[in-house]
Amino acid sequence: MVAIDWSAKLRHLLQTLFFCGLVATIEQAFSSRNTFLPSLLYSLLIGTTIWAVVDLGRHLIPSAAETGWPQGWHGLLLVLGGIVAGFLVGKNLGDLICQTFGLFPGRKVNSAADLRSSILITLLAGIAGSYWFHARNKSDYLLRKMREAQQHAEEARLKVLETQLEPHMLFNTLANLRALIAVDPARAQQMLDHMIAYLRSTLDASRATTHPLRAEFERLGDYLELMKIRMGPRLAYTLELPDDAAGLPVPALLLQPLVENSIQHGLEPKVEGGLVVVRARRDGDRLLIEVDDTGVGEASGASNGNGFGLTQIRERLHALYADRAALEFRRDASGAHARIQLPLP
Amino acid sequence: MSPTALIAEDEPLLAQALQAELARAWPELRIAATVGDGAAAVDAALRHRPDVLFFDIRMPGLGGLEAAAELADAWPDDTPFPALVFVTAYDQYALQAFDAQAIDYVLKPVQPARLHKTVEKLRAVLAQRSERDGNLEATLGQLRHLLQAAAPAAQPVLKVVQASVGNSIRMVPVEDVLYFEAADKYVRVVCADGEVLIRTPLKDLLPQLEPQLFWQVHRGTVVRATAVDSVHRDEAGKLHLALRGRKERLPVSRLYAHLFKPM
Lengths: 345, 263
Known about the structure:
The structure holds 2 protein chains of 2 kinds. By secondary structure, chain A is α+β, with helices and mostly antiparallel strands. In chain A, 62% of the residues lie in helices and 13% in strands.
């Protein structure tokens, strides 16, 4: 259960008392007799009771745990219960106080018309007040959620950059480049081009949401070609993209973390290196993409399917396709195997 | 006799580049071998017994730090231990803290000016290296520090070892364990009344064990300190542990020999 913020509760109570004062004032404005003081007393008593039942009672209802307000009919029932309790308790308490202290002796009450109008006023004011607090609560909740989501997105973006521009990757690549410039300037230029494309796509990734699968495969090619220059014969790779799938839109750099995992956790730790295969194909009304490697697999000690890269992919898939897309991942003795299913547009 | 060196670097272009830079900075140095992983580095070093080792820190299989520790353990007494230079793209272990000591380092891409300084230092070290080998001890001390810095942070203490035995799972309380020993793809968990095999690698197990109670005495062995009965030194100067009520002897690697000294 969430800790109750008592300063917020006090603020709500003061707001309620002010509202009750307002109700009594309006009531007086429409009345021919001078009944302001008794109206104010009853209004305050009824309002405070409704506040106590609704504002304090809502924390006892489990469905209020997340948003701070009970969901659906729970909320309605609470407000109605608060209004009924408010009227009964507030009115009887008021009567009791008046009798005990002999207040407002000249006041003739309890005519059927008076009772009807005070029930009506209590009902309307109770609903209006509750609605106001409910709306305030909801907008606070949404604002908080939005800030959380924003922060989450920023952290994720930073983390993607951190993993891709990881210092070992960056300086080893630069060291290779430096070595190539001396012995094979043409190849050095090629490597630099791949690196530029890789860096550009990494830094642009936050802007483009989707691009054709062809572009996705080109980016993977840049990365794998860079790694191939570094790892030499220890890395082999194939990219299989049939023509009828090349134009399909996919989230930008969706596959990048899978291929990076294959290199980092699969092939780099393996003395003899291995093979990375990326395949895409149409399958009925879906697009299937598979990333397989022949790396160390289950012996890698890396997390099995809940590392940052995979979580990131699952979140993106969920945000874009809800339940219509899926990622399966497993490591076994033969290496790591990832499989993504996307709905066709 | 011209000095010799061994290069261990898994990226072929970088190995070539280092060799080329070394040829310029230190023409009389002869490269005895160039290898691409840690295990091959240990083998080649024992075979060629070079004067200088250039070890990449990140290599497949055994990394540079582990390979150096392994080599220090297997190094024969009749040859001085080589001067060690680590090569790394990124100084995550704060190697510069060890500058001017037994272990040197260079950052990739290798800068000629920086390599020149390393070469000068190496020349001085080789010139004054005596037959009595103090270099090994100094190297071991620094390797210990580096390996400690590279070790993962301590985790919640493990209470029970869960091992799959046939179709069931055996629950072995950690207080019953005498020692853990890495064996191929498994770790043997040895107790007084038998043993089980688990798949969790020793390096993942270590951060979950109480360091005062369980001592790593070898790359592949972690022993309960209170289970050790006595420590013996053989003719070759190597330490072995005898356990209470057990026949087997556990070898102690040089890296961990400092743990056993009279109070």
